[in-house]
Amino acid sequence: MMRPPTSDVSSTRPWTGRSTQVPRTAQSRPATARPHTAASSRHTSSYVVAVLEGRGVSRDVGMAALDRDTGKVFLVQLADTTTYVKTLQQLNLHTPSLILVPDTFLSASHDPLATGGRKPNSTSVLVKRILDEFEGVPMEPVMRKYWNETAGLEFINQLCVEDDERAATVITVANKWVYALCLIGSSPYESLLRYYALSATCALFKHAENKLNTRFSPASLRIRYIQVDGTMMIDPETARNLELVGSMTSKRSTHSLLGVLNHTYTVMAARNMRVNLLAPVASQDAIDARHDVVEEFVQSEVRFTEVKDALKPFNKMDFDKLIASFTVAESSDYTSAKVASARVTLMLNLRSVVKNLPALAKSIEGGQSRLLHFLHKLMSDGRLADIEQEIEKHLNDDATLAKGGVKAVMSRVYAVRANCNRLLDVARETYKENVADIFALNAELSKQHDLPLTVVNQETGFVFQLKKNDLDGSELPRGFINVVVKKGKYTFSSLELQKRNARMKDALDETLVLSARVINDLIQYVVSNIGALYKASESVALLDMLWSFAHTSIVRNYGVLNVIIHLRVVILFLKAYNLQVLPSQMMCTAAMPPLSK
Hints:
Layout: E1 47-53, E2 60-67, E3 72-79, H1 85-93, E4 96-102, H2 125-133, E5 139-142, H3 149-159, H4 166-173, H5 176-183, H6 195-210, E6 222-225, H7 236-241, H8 257-261, H9 267-278, H10 284-299, H11 301-311, H12 319-327, H13 337-363, H14 370-379, H15 382-394, H16 405-413, H17 422-449, E7 454-458, E8 461-467, E9 480-486, E10 489-494, H18 495-528, H19 530-555, H20 566-576
Parallel strand pairs: 1-4, 3-6, 4-5
Antiparallel strand pairs: 1-2, 2-3, 7-8, 8-10, 9-10
């Protein structure tokens, strides 16, 4: 295997990567290619994936994928075939929204805007296969000097979260002892070095810094190296034809295996189920452990109900995305009221999660399966209790999230406890007085004009409202401006109200900025213990997925599904929707149990 050339990432040569939509030509997509009827059924994702292929004949491919929503990073390096089926499977597991490749992989016709350097006469076969498989996904060329394995390892050491898997990740991607053996000529060990995955990692994070304007806090990302050997290989074409995760007829249709099995509460569990259907676990021990949990849920109605009730508070929640919000340090003005308000909301969301985790852990306490014991241990991590205690120390007990209006504003204004910041207490008192002045003006004008005026808080501030029927056909009194009639109500303002709104807005912005200072200190504490949150999120996702399997088994009277016999699962899917299919030839061996039970 040939080692990719290492270049100096500190070079002063300007960054020339640009979002170039590669033109679709006859060269990039042959006329005999399959119709992309299933392209719209792919899972919506925010992955940015960097792909690098070695220059040798072994077709080694390294990938680094960053999910911008969840802050998870996956690394993989594999020896592929001439059709790159393994690479395409990994890309389907981590559906890209943007693909990064070295600029030397694209010909001048495919990358007409790139400057500098000689271009190859033709685009690489790997790039052509990716373009054909992911039609419409933008591909961006990145300068070759940014594909540097040394800098990639530095990124991993700097950003990988401090947990019990960090050491394994670092050792896997760059074993120093293996590196020493390679230096003295022990070529058989060279295959253990992840040159291409590390180089892709460097390009990925350089792109995040220079193009996405995003930096991450140290030791805040969950970076994992994927072992391809532990999963079953299902090529993308087969997955589409079997409709494992999406229907080929309609994007919104749930007529797929995922649609039958997915009764999850959380977004993380739905993502986890999708990955497990596209790349099923091949380890017998892992399959048996999951099977035991599903069997326990099916046989114990009490356990099943307790887990269901404990999962309900997490409905439609994306714990991974919430955690990622703590890790990103974007180049923005944190003294602005908008950003400050978002940070207060972020902390209120986290408090809601950590408050509900103990109930979920209790619902699986005393479980018979070893996997339930393991999940209970992760959800009962002492660091989670410390985070909850620290949040309670700084946030008011009655501070909750509201959807809109005055309650939503008040929840942010009074989220932080009193006496945490003296200036904050003064700013809140000023804001309270300004709001009282606005309500006093409303009462004064209502009495003056003998009209039942009300004040409503909108995004731009307070406005007056009056029902159309309360005017008795007459016009609004003089002095009211910006009159709008909508849904049988007048909405309007006045010069005096606008003046008081301006004073109120200044006090509100000052309050939110001062609150954010307290919240920022709290965020730093959360980031220092973020490994426990990642583990808790994985535990909730896995438990939710297994509960969904049990729910499907009970509702459809399937019994406990034998996940080893995948053909049975497909038959259950067909029976669920009464689909008529054309039988095809199949081969049955003596090792397969009978399909009828």
